[in-house]
Amino acid sequence: MKTKSLLTMATGSILKNKMRTMLTMLGIVIGVGAVIVMVAVGNGAQKQIEAQIKNLGTNLIVVTPGSTAAGGASQGAQTFNRLTVADADKIKSDATLLSAVSPVIVTRTQVITGKGNWRTEINGVATDYLTIRDWNVTSGDLFTDDDVRTKRKVAVLGATIVKNLFPDSDPVGSQIQLGHVPFMVVGVLAPKGQTSSGVDQDDIVLVPYTTAQARLSGFSFLGQILASASSPKDMIAAQEEIRGIMRDSHGLLGGGADDFTVRDQTAIAQAATSTTSVMTGLLAAIASISLIVGGIGIMNIMLVSVTERTREIGIRMAVGARGSDVLTQFLVESVVMSLLGGVVGLALGFGGAAILGHVMGWSTATPLIAVFVAVGFSAAVGVFFGYYPARKAAALDPIQALRYE
Amino acid sequence: MSTPVIQIGGVEKVYHMGETDVFALRGVDLTVSAGELLAVMGSSGSGKSTLMNILGCLDVPTAGSYVLDGIRVDGMSRNDLADLRNKKLGFVFQGFNLLARTSAVENVELPLLYDRTGRWMDTRAMAVEALQRVGLGERLDHQPSELSGGQQQRVAIARALVTQPTLLLADEPTGNLDSRTSVEVMALFQALNEQGITVIIVTHEPDIAQYAHRVIDVRDGRIMKDHVVAAPRRAAEDLIAMDAEAAAIAAGETREAA
Fold it and tell me: What integer pLDDT is reported at residue A83 of this predicted model?
């Protein structure tokens, strides 16, 4: 039997009982709609967290002094806090999988202007820092490599500092004091907001690390080294490479535990996203229950339909329909019904997610794959729940079916 | 002698009803040649319906052989029986058995859709032609509920004809029709038979059987009588006579009124 005539036949039978068909489809519509909305909400939350993590920097790798992996008393005192500019330079010159490297010297001091003062974190960094952190300046410029080389006293202010100390004017070109040392403001950083743990990333002043070493911190060790891997897929390899360079640089090639730690954001990201993906899964699982209930509804109606149309089945068999023809017909009917329901549910789900996102202010995102899964799943529901009634129809005896009143 | 369309020998059918076995057919032998118009007579419970089901490949005999148009039917699988019904047989039932809420032309087209040989090209055109052949060319898109009993039975006959079957099987085709419509349907069967189609009509009405060329009587699962009708009644002539009678009565009434 031709596919076209099968489809016309199935849609014809379905349309003969519009009200019943609509009510049966409603189960699938609600099921698919619920799954789509739930996935959209869960996925939206996940996307939001991912965006926050990406905000920390592009393919960010952090090298910190001291080993956390050693665990216990084995860390020698003389090996503690031994990150130097030389380490950073060696990483920069030797590494092949990194796009940017910057040493970071952290110190806290008072920012003083004519109008007031503000205690904040001063980071001594290289020019690559902004690239690594995926950050921009909104006004002025970052200091140059030349500034770094000549230890010039120039500073770039975070948005929070500007808000507090320069509420009405552009600070670029003004003089400020960091502790007792006068600096010139050369740029203002774009606002970056809070980290997922609530730390204000804009409460910061960036200066060349050379200047920080010479003028502010008074010590030559680095708080950390930040690096950026060339691409996300190189993250693991890049960390291994840094580790090798660091062990070489620290004379650990002969053996001994690392006296530094290399880590990336994936661990943090994984923890955060796994929480939301568990939530998404749970929501989708609950929503799928309604899809199954919808499927049972289809099965119920198909069973009624087979009984009601026993005579029709007998007629079809008398004129030459095989059992398989009857089976296919009823299966196609239930699949068409559930697929239609799935498509309507899809539309409803997208609409619902959009409304929910608008009203509740949640970010929602439905991945394209959810569309295929929803449609495929509703078709599968049609096949699964339609099979038993269809088999019952196909197994009918033509003589008895013809006599059925 | 033309080739036999049907050749059955020693056909038995036993139904198991719990402990007891019920014999519906107890050894039936029958040969039907191409072009015959055969009536199978018998009262209810005689086994004629069982015989009809076996001849129609809806059921298989418990014992005995059945050869339809040179094809051995006994022992065939369900699927092969379905294919055989589609290829060789046309059914006409007492209750018309048309698909409800389906147009006449779609009803007639139905058997063509189940064809597995790929013989038919334009199934819709064939359905239209079959309906024209039974005189319903004007009512292609009517649904069964919009047609009279006689018209519904014509649709059913068109459906039986459309596959160009070897054999037309009619089970009490006039059982639900008034006497005039019955004669009309019989006239149609006779006309089709004259075009070369073999027709078997199962009936319990002697009035209907007298239009056949050969009549067999079934009783208690056996063929009791098998005789050829020398001069079968012509349904078309009966119709003309009935019309004349009706006209005369109408004329009489008009005269009385005047």
Answer: 85
Tell me whether B255 touches chain A (CB under 8 Å). no
Pick from A350, A342, A351: nearest CA to A294? A342
Question: Which of A231, A264, A297 is the C-terminal boundary of a domain?
Answer: A264
**What domains can you pick out in chain B, each with its CATH number?**
36-49+88-257 (3.40.50.300)
Q: Which of A199, A229, A264 is the last residue of a domain?
A: A264
For residue A10, which residues of chain B lie inside 8 Å, CB to CB? Answer: none
* Same domain membership, residue A286 and residue A167: no
Q: Are residues A29 and A68 in the same domain?
A: no
Task: With respect to residue A269, please indicate whether it lies within any of the assigned structural domains.
Answer: no
Q: Count the Cβ atoms, other than its own, within 10 Å of residue A253.
A: 10
The rounded mean pLDDT for chain B is 91
Are residues A255 and A279 located together in one domain of the fold? Answer: no
Q: Are B110 and A2 within 8 A, CB to CB?
A: no
Kindly state whether residue A187 falls inside one of the protein's structural domains: yes
DSSP A131-156: HHHT--EEEE-PPPHHHHHTT--EEE
Report DSSP state, residue B3. Answer: P
- pLDDT at position A78: 42
Q: Model confidence at A196, in pLDDT bands (50, 70, 90)?
A: low
Which neighbouring-strand residues pair with A264? A61
In this structure, the answer to whether residues A219 and A96 fall within a common structural domain is: yes
**pLDDT > 70 fraction of chain A, expressed in percent and rounded:** 93
> DSSP secondary structure string, B193-243?
HHTT-EEEEEES-HHHHTTSSEEEEEETTEEEEEEE-SS---HHHHHHHHH
pLDDT tens readout for residues A212-262: 888 887 777 888 898 988 887 888 888 889 988 988 888 887 777 778 888
Residue A80 and residue A197 in one domain: yes
**CB-CB under 8 Å, B83 with A322:** yes
Q: Do A315 and B98 touch (CB under 8 A)?
A: yes
Please report which confidence band the pLDDT of residue A1 belongs to, taking 50, 70 and 90 as the band edges: low
A304 part of a folded domain: yes
Total-model pTM: 0.70
Residue A319 distance to chain B (closest CA, Å): 5
User: What is the Cα–Cα distance from B12 to B68, expressed in whole angstroms?
Assistant: 17
Q: Do A186 and A179 contact (CB within 8 A), yes or no?
A: no
Residue of A nearest to B168 (CA): A319
Q: Is the pLDDT of residue A70 over 50?
A: no
What is the per-residue pLDDT across B84-103, written as a single tens digit (0 to 9) for each?
A: 999 999 999 988 999 988 99
From chain B, the residues in CB contact with A318 under 8 A are 56, 58, 85, 91, 97
- Compute the distance between CA of residue B137 and CA of residue B131 in angstroms, rounded to an integer: 5
The residue range of the domain holding A104 is: 60-264
Q: Does B120 touch chain A (CB under 8 A)?
A: no
Please indicate if any CB of chain A lies within 8 Å of the CB of B88. Answer: no
> What is the ipTM for the molecules in this complex?
0.92
Residues A222 and A318 in one domain: no
pLDDT-based confidence at residue A77 (cuts at 50, 70, 90): very low
Q: State the virtual CA torsion across B234, B236, B241, B244 in degrees, nearest 10.
A: -170
Say whether both A253 and A339 belong to one domain. Answer: no
